[in-house]
Amino acid sequence: MIHLARIRNVTLTVLCFLFIFQTATLVQADPENQIYTERMALFKKIEAITQVPWYYFAAMDNYERNTLPSTEEEKVISIQFDETEWFGLGNAAKSTEQDIIKHFRGIGKDGNDDNQADANDPEDILYTMANHILSYGLHEDDVKIAIWEHYKRDLTVQTIMNTAKVFQKFGDIHLTDRAFPLDTNYNYSYRSTWGARRGFGGLRIHEGTDIFASYGVPVRSTTYGVVEMMGWNLYGGWRIGIRDIYNIYHYYAHMSGFDKDIKVGQVVQPGDILGSVGSTGYGPPGTSGKFPPHLHYGMYKDNGYSEFSFDPYPFISKWERMEKNNK
Ligand SMILES: [Zn+2]
């Protein structure tokens, strides 16, 4: 009997070790997924408590994270409040006691029931933000005002509302797919031309990559995002702008026209057809053929203060490789 019990014990111990080892391996295999899972669980929990749809504070969190330098260590939640807003004016000791914060008219709240409103605690941060939104109301326009009151910047509000729309549509925050701007089954060619001088329009620097292809080759969205602008522009011809969920604006120019289903405000995903390659621009609406057909593709990053263009070449060549490897 003793023998049997011992064997059973050893077996149990081995099984336990195996289980722990396997779990550890699974977690280790994808630490990036783990933070998304943890974030999503927090968003859903705060939504359950407050009834504020999770995608609003998820979009705010995502926006703030993408204004930070990539060298900074990634936090579970990146939403930040300034100290006066959180603790209240006059709460010089920065007391995290709810009653004291309330007395000084701070907005910091306790979301995890430890009686402290901690500005560094993910649940307290989200619970406070959800209550901030709730104090304005849950109609889309109310939420917009709540977000504006927190950031006081139009582009920030617009980006957050777009991202919320994308998160809502896909029911997820971990959206990492990408696509090359043209259908890769067609012939095309491109090289790094960012920063080169262009002939027309004075001394403007070339802010993008030109991808040469024949008329009619499908132009596709490279990213998840929302169509922010489409129409005619003197230099760009028929062009379309999409703001993605990483605070980046994607600009597609010289197109021959747009896909009939594409509209301003629409949510798109990588590979969605936007229109086709053309040679429009450098004149009044409809002007075409002043240069060989190509897609001009530009990328602009918003860091929370200003928007600046950067070289899309390394990104589109990476997306091209990703697509070719998937074939
Ligand atoms: Zn160009």
TrEMBL record:
Protein's recorded name: L-Ala--D-Glu endopeptidase
Segments passing through the bilayer: none
Keyword Signal: yes
Species lineage: Bacteria, Bacillati, Bacillota, Bacilli, Bacillales
Classification via PANTHER family: L-ALA--D-GLU ENDOPEPTIDASE, PEPTIDASE-RELATED
Signal peptide bounds: 1-29
SUPFAM superfamilies linked: Duplicated hybrid motif
Domain M23ase beta-sheet core: 205-303
Keywords: Signal
Provenance organism: Oceanobacillus neutriphilus
InterPro entries noted in UniProt: Cell_wall_metabolism_enzyme, Dup_hybrid_motif, M23ase_b-sheet_dom
